[in-house]
Amino acid sequence: MTNRFILNELSYFGAGSRLELPSVVSRLGFKKALVVTDEGLVKCGVCKMLTDVMDSAGIPYEIFDEVVPNPTVTNVKNGVVAFANSKADFIVAIGGGSSMDTAKGIGIVTNNPEFGDVVSLEGCAPTKHKSVPIIAFPTTAGTAAETTINYVIIDEKARKKMVCVDPNDIPCCSIVDAELMCSLPKATTAATGMDALTHAIEGYITKAAWELSDMFEIEAIRLINKYLRLAVFDPENPKGREGMALAQYVAGMAFSNVGLGVVHGMAHPMGSLHNIPHGVANALLLPTVMEFNAPVCREKYVEIAKAMGAYKEDMTMVEASKAACDAVRALAIEVGIPQHLSEIGIYSKDIDALADQAIADVCTPGNPRNVTRDDIVALYKKLL
To answer: Which of 84, 217, 262, 362 could tie 163 with a disulfide, CB 3.0–4.6 Å?
Structure first.
């Protein structure tokens, strides 16, 4: 069996690392940027932290700030037009997964116009050309989109999330500056942090996982257990923000290459049909799906329990598995994640439509335990 591993060509980490942008632009010979972001980041001044750097360095740019929390096909198409009109030759993506996913869609369609309908990019599309170069600046510690080959776009007509997997979309440079995350609200910090934990755990137990990916994912779990509470409850402490910024990136390096599982398969339709934030959906589902998967993941759950600080030397493997699930649920509760679907506006009448999309989701086959539609319905019902 051949295992493939794709990573960014270049990444920078640390407070103030956004100041590396001019040297990257100069070295790569770029001339003008289209800044892809959302209105909220413009209004709160986070975008300005980057445009000030560009202004000081004399780097011309235009801003496309139409990104929405669950980006759509229309979002991408409008961005493609904005990129063409700007006469830019590279993209600066500022934001969480939504901004970076939109930027990836814009970059791929621009250089592969035969996929201009966007919906044809779902799954593993056979694009021939690399994306327009993207320099990615994450402002949340969750999605790791700055280092993955994945992006997610909503097809409004079908009311479903399209998971797109394409080595040509990976940003040419990622700059992970935790100072860009300092204004992140408590609830968003919690949800995106639990999103990162979901990536790490699903990436660790997915069918395609192997030694190299395991190394990254177990470290990501350890880092998240160490730093998420600090980031949520003491947001002014830079150690928490920087720890989570690193943890989510480490998780992304691996899951991008080995895939995920049914937590994501079930979370995606919660976003497309009910507009639930992705991190909230993942975090709500994760402990219950872990319990479902436990019979086929005992050995790895022992390591998860250790990374979560929940393992005791005299535990049996079954006890350690339960401790891992309980530790994840306890962390979710501690940082304020809803525990029932009804709390976020999803009820019994909605389950059939959710299950139809979840069983067909590209992430679902990667689940370590084979899952049926009936299993998915039962899992949703357990969380009502």
So the answer is: 362
